[in-house]
Design brief:
The chain is mainly alpha-helical and about 90 residues long. Helix content is about 85%, strand content about 0%. It is flat and about 50 Å long. The chain starts with a helix and ends with a helix.
């Protein structure tokens, strides 16, 4: 139940702010009823400051961990980037 309270508003927030109606969101997430969608959006709107702060903290943590991984093994990420470039040019 807790994951629904946290994840659903975060996921649905982006769909809602991108212009999707609650009905459209419910169709995109068949496991959710229209009541769930409205409940999640209501929860987000009632706790917007806290949820947005949580998202910002998580984004900052992700950015720091990503940079730490790149700093720990720069050659791996260089090879990964080269492989990605080769793949992209071979697909074209």
């Amino acid at each position: 139940m807790y994951s629904f309270i946290i994840v659903a508003p975060l996921t649905l927030k982006y769909a809602y702010w991108n212009g999707q109606s609650a009905e459209s969101i419910a169709q995109s997430f068949p496991v959710l009823t229209l009541e769930h969608v409205y409940g999640a959006l209501t929860f987000y709107l009632a706790h917007q400051t806290e949820i947005d702060a949580y998202l910002e903290r998580r984004r900052a943590e992700y950015t720091a961990k990503r940079q730490a991984a790149r700093d720990a093994d720069p050659m791996f990420y260089q090879r990964l980037a080269e492989a990605r470039r080769k793949l992209e040019t071979s697909v074209r």
